[in-house]
Amino acid sequence: MRTYPDPPYYVVVFTSRRTPGDNGYSDSAARLDEIAAQQPGYLGHDSARSSPELGITVSYWKDEESISAWKRHIEHTPIRNRGRAEWYETYEVHVAKVERSYFFERDQLDTLPVDG
């Protein structure tokens, strides 16, 4: 499991409903993943898709300045504009500061204290 730095850090939650068909979406999404990973302040991302239409991507960032710089990136802007024109029926973006973070890992159950 990937670990992130101790909070605080920021998340960008992108929830979208896609239009039918790929129409170049997969290639552009892969390119955005590649260039986002090279941006200062980028910490990683997680994605889930419950159907061909509905998807959620959460990207993790060091600070708000890093998020703003990514939004203005020279390759991000035209791909975002193409998304509005061709790939998305709707999308929402939420930016939040992570104050607390924790995780569970099944393999570690034997080492956790037992309540009682």
Automatic annotation (TrEMBL):
It comes from the Bacteria. Keywords: Monooxygenase, Oxidoreductase. InterPro entries: ABM_dom, Dimeric_a/b-barrel, Jasmonate_Hydroxylase-like. The keyword Transcription does not apply. Gene3D superfamilies: 3.30.70.100. Residues 23-76 form the ABM domain. GO terms for molecular function: monooxygenase activity. This is Heme-degrading monooxygenase HmoA.
